Amino acid sequence: MTSIDNLTIIGERINPGFKSSKALLDAKDLDSIQQLAVLQEEKGAKYLTINVGTAASDDPEFLVDVIHKVQEATDLPLSFDYPNKEVQQICLENYDPGKAKGRKPIMNSVSELRMEMLDLIESQPCKVVLMASERMENGEKIANTTAEEVHTTAKRLTEQVMQRSGDMENDDIFVDVALGPLSADTESITRQAIDSIRLIGADPSLKGIHTIVGLSNLSVMLPKQALDGSLLKVQLESSFLTMAMPLGLDTILGTAGRNYQVLDEDNFVYTGFKEALELGGFKSILRVQELYKTN
Question: What domains does the chain contain, in order, with CATH numbers?
Fold first, then answer.
């Protein structure tokens, strides 16, 4: 196994989706939240997610306090994870690029269902995460169910971004192809994500944009250990990276300091992961279970 040097990690921990982080956010413990930001930087994060949950709408002053507190302690650029134009506007207006060495923040998440969010890039320079897993068609929200649909949506969204801002470059764009729990993946979402990354990575018109996934989603609801004694969750996440990075994936929303690896072809978990993706449907879930269950 070899460690992964060319992987950009957006530190995900300032987020109520994690029990320990939720406790800090609920208590409005700004000092501990600041320490969490510093810890992620020390462990190799290149951006830091800011998501304070419902407080973003219920108590916007707390959101502003978190942004300021984090920027007091680290010069990493921030990524604001809200599918809401009003909240994003607060985030972008209170972000100080001077404290991030002039680097732009990231606005996450823009989709065809929320095109009004693109209004913000005209006045607030930022990078954007485009959600290519859904599209708007004839006024209706439709989930993309094939890699081709994800790729087409990614191209359309990228064109919209470029039309809105003459200063935006491909390097400012991240396309999220969506990733869900492997333990419940009867619809081959994981395979679709990999195929989507392949199509986007091979498209000359999208050269230079970044593809991104929320990698921690993959191992939700799975035990920590595999039958061979290895750490199942991190090995499955590493399996995805081993397969997807050569196709163009270069960024993850993930846990800084996690032992992500490029796995050998005969690695026990990687072998099972590849076979599960090939099987598809319920057989895929059964194959994943073979990595940690005895008959």
Answer: 2-289 (3.20.20.20)
Residue 122 CA: distances (Å) to CA of 37, 82, 119, 213:
29, 18, 6, 26
Helix-strand-coil split of the chain, %, nearest 5: 50, 15, 35
pLDDT of 28-42, one tens digit each? 999 999 999 999 999
Residue type, 209: I
For 170, the enclosing helix (H) or strand (E) is: none
The per-residue pLDDT for range 143-158, each reduced to its tens digit, is: 999 999 999 999 999 9
- List the Cα angle 226/232/233 in 5-degree steps: 160
DSSP states along 228-244: TSSBHHHHHHHHHHHHH
119 vs 165: CA distance, rounded Å: 9
- Look up residue 217 and give its two tokens: 């989603």
- Find how far residue 107's CA is from the centre of its chain: 12
| Dist CA 67 CA 3 (whole Å) | 31
| Beta-bridge partners for 174 | 129, 210
For residue 1, is pLDDT > 70?
Answer: no
Nearest CA among 127, 131, 89 for reference residue 113: 131
In whole angstroms, what is the distance from residue 180 CA to residue 128 CA?
21
Distance of CA 127 to the CA centre of its chain: 14
